Amino acid sequence: MPPKGHDQSYRRSVPGLPSLPRPVYGRTESLPNRALTRRHSHPWVQLSYAIQGVLEVQTSAGRFVAPPQRAVWIPAGVPHRVFSSPRTEMRSLYLDCSVTAWAQPRCHVLGVSDLLRELIRRFSQMPVEYQEDGAQGRLVQVLLDQLAEAPQIDLMLPLPQDSRLQKIYQSLQLHPEQATTLGHWSEKFAVTEKTLSRLFLRDTGLTFRAWRQRLRLLGALTPLEQGERVTDVALACGYDSTSAFIAAFRQQFGATPGEFFP
User: Fold this and answer.
1) Within a 10 A sphere around the Cβ of 23, how many other Cβ atoms?
2) Which end of the chain is more exposed for a tag (fewer CB within 10 A), N or C?
């Protein structure tokens, strides 16, 4: 599920490119409102990246979230939808598969270093049909080298496949503050709590408690990046205290909200 308010989102168009004019193609967009794309795929790799705003890419496997200094790597042929928060500045890249042989064939989030960020900025200013055999081509090669070395970041919420767990997910996505336990859901579905716990581990690789915490914390990134107060975000995510939220945030992301969004 996309972030709250997605039903009022502006629907972004998907470029109808028959082929890429160069091995690397850039797309620059300024999106003042929340936006989404229809479910689609490309015959090339996509790097969904924003220098401002929070992006979310959803595939059948899960939700991949990218605040600034992060990007989502989407392999060729993977059906996906892209959601963006208001006031997002996109600097996406499309890459021909011939120049990404080193990449893993699965969707994941990458850390964007200062150097990689500036390379993407500079590339976005170059002509679409840049000179491949000159200085511009060398810059593109450095950009590709930096992409190959970019670390993978665990900013993904795996989505359950079991129909009962999907109902739990849909409910918690709409109301992450609710304190319903797995016992509550087991009574609703007339199965044992142990059964639901086993299904969560099978479908997501996480316990229900860890999975729900990740759902809440990933959902907190957009309002925090938009400047909402930490206390308000903590309460909206279901935390009883700001300190408990900050501790969980630090454990998940390795930084406090203030450090993560300076």
Assistant:
1) 19
2) C
